[in-house]
Amino acid sequence: MPKMPAMDAVVSILMDEGVDTVFGIPGAAILPLYQSLSKVSDKIRSVTARHEEGATHMADGWARITGQVGVAIGTSGPAGTNMVTGLYTAWADSIPMITITGQVPRSQLHREGFQAVDIVNIVKPVVKKSFIVMEPAQIPWVFREAFRIAREGRPGPVHIDLPLDVQKAEILYDPEVDQALPVFRTPPNPNAIRRAVELLLTAERPLILAGGGVINAQAEDLLVQLAEYLQIPVSPTLMAWGAIPADHPLAVGTVGIQTHTRSANRVFLESDLVLALGARFAERHTGDLAVYTQGRQFIHVDVDPGQIGRIIEPQLGIVADARLALDALLAEARRQVAPRTPGAWVSRVQWLRESHDRVMDMDTVPIHPARVFKAINESFGPDTIFTTAIGLYQIWSGQFQRVYRPRHYLVCGQAGPLGWEIPAALGVKLARPDQEVVAVVGDYSFEFLVEEIAVGVQYQVPFVMVMLNNGYLGLIRQPSKYQYQMNYGVDISYDHNQGMGMDNVAMVEAMGGRGRRVTRPDELEDAIQWARQEARNHRVPVLVEVFIEREADAAMGPALDQIREFSPVIDREPALAAPGQG
């Protein structure tokens, strides 16, 4: 068995596991790993972030778009603590990722050495597994196990801490006799599958609720095949947007109390059976559980046994990989029944979808938020990949945007860290250089990790940012106004910039990007086309900053039950109550 530097073995494993890009910031305690990475710079690209949190979000975006394990690297001490938000985000959204930190030498671990922190225990609540490698000979097997854990079952992040003296060691390792560990995919119980199909066939108004587990299992094709075979409408959760194209006859939009379509909420409340695939029933999806569950049965399929029965008690629970479950459901459906044709329920769903759409063509000044998304929908094609984070702008995005492909609408759904969308867009664009990438941003979220725009300029990563700027912390102001009847601490505007806060265009241009400000709706489409062209020509991030109505609200459900509907609907019916409103 040949001897080699331990970090050379790590780099060999990274390449074998499909990693072609790593994101991070070098520092004294992690330099041996960077030294080994420098030897394979033609095979693994190392992207230097401006903040370790930004590096984790880049790795997160890379993982979401590729379906592979993302990798972020940092040195010791604050590098690891800076990564916690990124790890939490990946853990909450089931994203496979490995973070690697340097550590003081083993002899200093108990002596409070410089930048020595027990990062392994700090991150434990937000990772599937955390390791500190105390013996150099363990390195290959820890890394192989980390990749297996990140991928298997419910995907998620894994952390590895490497003491400096462990990194510097030599170990016995031969890449020729090593390989990735097998990943077990849980098959469904055939009896449960048979019962599930029987329930679907006897239901009058069935609905398929497709969650992020469908995306993780790369099962979108089987989802659509099952829906078409049995003629069952499909509502994707926010994490599964694009699992069925927005213009598919069986697509009904997203159910929820914030990111939702009125037609989807109406369809859900009229359903009598819900087949939930890889969905967690998060509270901003369900609202009031008594209303959400009343009058309908549930079949819950999830690869994580701990998810079944956690929020609701299903009529039938099935522990299985989403792709294997859908494959079995489709085979069983074909055994039990011939292909179905659209019936009264499908016709009803299509009518609801067509008649309950929100108006988006307002031409008011200041610009109405819905008008921004009309421009986005019409300016970008179905292959465009979008990233967005958390705030009113993301809620409007979830209500108004149209998505036609899986893994083309990426959002930090459960954790919701501000600033996620820009570094995530960088990771996505580096993984998909030939596709157009757009970050939908808010003015406050923009300020959290704005420095990562410099990474896009440095590495010539062109993408477009469309900012909705109300200068007013809208998502905080809205509940503050309606629930607490106050307006305190929610203003971030500056008088010298039309009352809209920091000069975001100047900030982008200071780092080498391009920017343009829009104040009228008739300028939107031209500005977006300009940004697309500038990104292509100059290969830098480009910002379109849109000044919107300062006090515009987003239509929401029971969390803010006094809020009026966001805009009128085509059929002018009364506002539809979201699940939880009755």
Automatic annotation (TrEMBL):
* Sequence ranges assigned to domain Thiamine pyrophosphate enzyme TPP-binding in this UniProt record: 390-546
User: What are the transmembrane regions?
Assistant: none
Annotated Pfam families: TPP_enzyme_C, TPP_enzyme_M, TPP_enzyme_N
Annotated ranges, domain Thiamine pyrophosphate enzyme central: 193-329
Q: Which GO terms describe its biological process?
A: isoleucine biosynthetic process; L-valine biosynthetic process
One GO cellular component term, please give it.
acetolactate synthase complex
| UniProt xrefs under InterPro entries | DHS-like_NAD/FAD-binding_dom, THDP-binding, Thiamin_PyroP_enz_cen_dom, Thiamin_PyroP_enz_TPP-bd_dom, TPP_enz, TPP_enzyme_TPP-bd
What keywords does the record list, in alphabetical order? Lyase, Thiamine pyrophosphate
Reactions it catalyzes: 2 pyruvate + H(+) = (2S)-2-acetolactate + CO2
Q: Where is the Thiamine pyrophosphate enzyme N-terminal TPP-binding domain?
A: 6-121
SUPFAM superfamilies according to UniProt: DHS-like NAD/FAD-binding domain, Thiamin diphosphate-binding fold (THDP-binding)
- UniProt-listed CDD domains: TPP_PYR_POX_like (cd07035)
A GO molecular function held by the record = flavin adenine dinucleotide binding
Give the E.C. number(s). 4.1.1.47
| Family affiliation | Belongs to the TPP enzyme family.
For this protein, the record's NCBIfam families field holds: PRK11269.1
In Swiss-Prot or TrEMBL terms, this protein is called: Tartronate-semialdehyde synthase
Source organism (scientific name): Sulfobacillus acidophilus (strain ATCC 700253 / DSM 10332 / NAL)
